[in-house]
C-alpha cells in the first residue's frame, strides 16, 4: 500500500492523519474517486480478490482462503517501501460484502497491529457521465516504524495511489 505508481488523478481526493489511542499511533485515512463505470462494473473489479494484485500498488498476492455467503477470508502479501526501508506485510483479512454498495475489511491476523477499512460504492454522475463514486475510509496501524516526519504524507500518497489504481482498473474493465 505504500508504493509509487503514476496513475491519472481522476479527481481523486485522499487524506491521512495520525491519531493516538492508548499510546499507540495509527493513521486515519479517507479517499474518494469517480470511476466511469457502473456500480456493477466497479463491484466486479473490487470483489475479484484473486486479481487485486494485478492492479493494486505494492500488493504482491491476494488469495481467497474461504468464502461463506457474503464473507470471504483473504490472505494478502504486500511489499512496503518507506524511504530506504522495505517490509513484507502479510495479512489475513475478513471481508464482508454488501453487493454493489459496500465492502468492509478487518484484520484477522498478520503484520499490522490494526487494519479496518470500509469501501462504499454509489451511483453518481460527473460532468455529464454516469459512473460510480467510490469512498474509502479506515484506520491502520503498522507494526513497523514509520518516521513521524514523513509518515502522514507517505500514507496519504499511498491511499491516493490505491484509489487511483482502483478507479483506473474499473475504467479499463468498463471500456471493454
TrEMBL record:
Every Coenzyme Q-binding protein COQ10 START domain range: 38-166
Pfam families, per database record: Polyketide_cyc (PF03364)
Source organism, top-level taxon: Bacteria
InterPro entries: COQ10_START, START-like_dom_sf
Similarity comment text for this entry: Belongs to the ribosome association toxin RatA family.
Name listed for the protein in its UniProt record: SRPBCC family protein
Protein source organism: Noviherbaspirillum album
Amino acid at each position: 500500500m505504500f508504493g509509487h505508481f503514476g496513475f491519472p488523478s481522476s479527481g481523486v481526493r485522499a487524506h491521512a492523519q495520525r491519531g493516538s489511542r492508548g499510546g499507540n499511533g495509527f493513521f486515519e485515512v479517507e479517499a474518494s474517486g469517480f470511476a466511469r463505470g457502473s456500480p456493477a462494473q466497479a463491484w466486479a473489479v473490487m470483489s475479484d480478490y484473486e486479481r487485486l494484485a494485478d492492479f493494486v500498488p505494492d500488493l504482491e498476492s491476494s488469495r481467497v482462503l474461504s468464502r461463506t455467503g457474503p464473507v470471504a477470508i483473504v490472505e494478502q502479501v504486500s511489499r512496503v517501501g518507506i524511504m530506504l526501508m522495505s517490509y513484507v506485510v502479510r495479512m489475513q483479512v475478513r471481508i464482508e460484502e454488501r453487493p454493489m454498495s459496500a465492502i468492509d475489511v478487518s484484520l484477522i491476523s498478520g503484520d499490522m497491529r490494526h487494519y479496518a477499512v470500509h469501501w462504499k460504492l454509489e451511483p453518481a454522475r460527473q460532468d455529464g457521465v454516469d459512473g460510480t463514486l467510490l469512498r474509502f475510509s479506515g484506520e491502520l496501524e503498522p507494526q513497523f516504524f514509520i518516521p513521524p516526519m514523513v509518515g502522514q504524507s507517505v500514507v496519504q500518497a499511498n491511499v491516493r495511489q490505491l484509489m487511483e489504481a482502483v478507479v483506473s482498473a474499473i475504467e479499463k474493465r468498463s471500456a471493454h
